[in-house]
Amino acid sequence: MVARFAEHLVDQFEKEKLMDHTMREHYIYAVVSIIERFLTVGSIICLGFIHKNVDLTVLFMIFFFSLRKRTGGYHAKHYWQCYIMTIIVYMTVMYLCHHVQEVACLIWILLGISVVVISVIGTVNHPNLDLDAEEMQISQKSARYVLLIECGILCIAWYLRIDNSYVYCMMLAVILCGFLMILAKLLEQEVKRDEA
After folding, report:
1. Worst-scoring range by mean pLDDT, 1-15, 42-56, 59-73, 155-169?
2. Residue 17: its pLDDT value, please?
3. What span, in angstroms and rounded, lies between the C-alpha atoms of 88 and 82?
4. Rounded Cα–Cα distance for residues 10 and 21 (Å)
């Protein structure tokens, strides 16, 4: 449905001579990506309003998407699968932010493991990304910088005794990125560096 809408929109671009016909597939891909991102982020924000977690929602999205954009990791085959998994993961994270006190030690351990995974691997070169060697190196370096910044913010928030739900929200975003990287590796969802 999204693809058909994107094709219709690109057809209109062509009729109005707003684009070169040779770029048709690129435009369709770009429009589909924008619509899918809007639907996903919009749904998450709406859920944040419904559950009165807008602050945690925005914090989670900033931490998660900033790191995820650079680390790569597991990708579902179809958008609808990605959408459903994203909503389930978001709801789980929001629940855990408020109920993780009982397993706080486990969360810290998982954070440590995720920091090591992200620091060592840097980026999983998913076939959708298909990064060349130079792009891969830049992405890995960028992922490590973002991780360093996020860990610094986490340490400051913990030191200042910011509400635990905010600290756990940030921690869970980093843990999720590490988990998705490991999952992609286990499922062999990557372009090997020597192939890139």
Report:
1. 1-15
2. 78
3. 10
4. 10
